[in-house]
């Protein structure tokens, strides 16, 4: 060396660096990570590697670490296990092997096994950590407890940590929890309450490992960095549909005891896919790096989800599943499982951004490929004048336009973000995402890869490694808070309950399933696209279908009666209403329709909302036949039913909608508020002669109609057009059109459905005009027409 003073200078510099490093360690402090369940499968496959990655990322940045692998196994066995796992840890590809070996050696030195069973064991652990800190003169920064144990063990461990193993003042505690977090809303709430008695909310990190998948973790940053381009696109005017998909080739063999209790909806949709859904659907916070803002916006997205119904789902089960369950759980041959291993769900988000956009969620075991993605498909509003051959990917607006967050596997084989070239060139952080190299011949979502701007991570990282880093840095937005967890269960539990006895469609699995699991939607309903074979070829004696019957025309109480199976009947009534409406608008320029509440008209309203494109809604006035005395937004309110099943889907001008004024002066149906008189005045002001074009009524099992009940002191006769009445069932107070007003209508239709109505139908067919006993018998339009619509069950029993 030519410079004699150099050695000295170098030595001084190194010493200074070392001192700085030691000072930094003192500055940041010591972190103890305790991995509970350290000898389990998850730990072996992902968690130790995740901890090692954490060490690689953080070493030299001012923290010191110790890693405690813990389980119930004896110390000797546990240590042997851990030694083996630690030897197999890998470093990122770009790290030179010598450096890797050195760091792995350090990590091995810092990692130890200990048995943790009793409360005393936890006390001893705490003492050891304190002794170590004291011995090395370190300040404690915090403790991470990673629960990789079954949920039944949570409470005991939580109690011990809380009572005997919390860090000292000034240091943080983070407990990391693995799913399942309950089985439904109630059990999730119980578990949350129990954990809440030991830990603060900010101490709990509930893992959903999908939030650590690189493509998923990129959704919000992508939306943020491309705000300008996306602002006008990310909404119902441009998005045609969203698909959130997770397909697996593996089946549930070997874990049927878990799977039998959970099934695919609880295992994958309630957590992973729902989390992804909220990241796509939520309003983008101004500051996406604020955990608090992200979590709040997520919660709002949950609140905007429309409730699911049985018809929102299709279920399947791969054929071998039943046999696997019988074998693994020693069930008799007669045992048949109803657990779904495949589910497709149609979700709607009821807000201005997403109204009407279908979100498909789908997951299945034993599928033809392993792949996960979120695909946002945009509407195509262009017409391209040149021949298709001349369409250029980044210029033609006629080629499909989509953004895909490719979670992994599949034909691409790695996570990616794809943006159709005819949308915009996206901006992604160049230090972590790079453009994918061309792969001639590779097609994704119907287009060659070259049609997309395609990016993949510079360094592929396992989800658990990403999450370890987020735990360490306290990034709570990558985890499930109690509020979010419960919101998700509130959304899924009613559907799960309604599907509990549903028989899933059997599928052979793999490529052999063909098109058997394809599904499609119509309105709010989802159904398999293909009928199952046995349904296509009905054998002798198979159940009759509605279309096998003609609509029956007869007389009932001397008025026309139309009877059919429910579906046909509703279709016929909807057609008749539309025809009446079209006629009225042609003659008078408007149509006045008064509708009853309750459950019978619901399918009718749905039919009108989804199948009647020629209906003159712009000229229709909607009135209420009766109302319960509750606020209009109450689920019990008849108006609320009208809103949910009809108004939100059609375009009736606001000033043509006439709810009953049951809620005045902050009180409900008070005589002094004269709500009934107000409604009568509104009718007389707008409806010629107070004569509705059509009044739709129902009939109760006691013979009531509208809210006119047997022996009602008001509304059965007299001059009052609108009256306050009392119902024998809750809510008791009602407002109702009176019989005299109903009888002024040009047409009255009475809809009666279901077996429960059979008895009253028979009875009323025989009685005369006795409205006091059976108010329905007082319905007889003075110059209009009365038509009865009854399904076969109500009419024939
Ligand atoms: C788990 C489910 O949460 O996710 C498994 O319990 C599923 O059933 C797994 O196989 C899929 O995760 P990944 O990371 O392989 O897509």
Detailed description of the structure:
The protein is an alpha/beta fold and 797 residues long. The chain has 3 domains: 28-178, NAD(P)-binding Rossmann-like Domain (Rossmann fold, 3-Layer(aba) Sandwich), CATH 3.40.50; 211-377 and 399-527, Dihydrodipicolinate Reductase, domain 2 (2-Layer Sandwich), CATH 3.30.360.10; 552-796, Rossmann fold. Helices cover 35% and strands 21% of the residues. The protein is built from 23 helices and 33 strands. The strands form 7 sheets. A 10-stranded mixed β-sheet has the order 14-17-13-12-11-7-10-9-8-18. An 8-stranded mixed β-sheet has the order 21-22-33-32-29-23-24-26. β5, α7 and β6 form a beta-alpha-beta unit. α17 (566-588) packs across α18. The longest helix has 26 residues, at 256-281. The model is unreliable at 15-26 and 533-549 (pLDDT under 50). 6-O-phosphono-beta-D-glucopyranose (BG6) binds at residues 248, 267-268, 372.
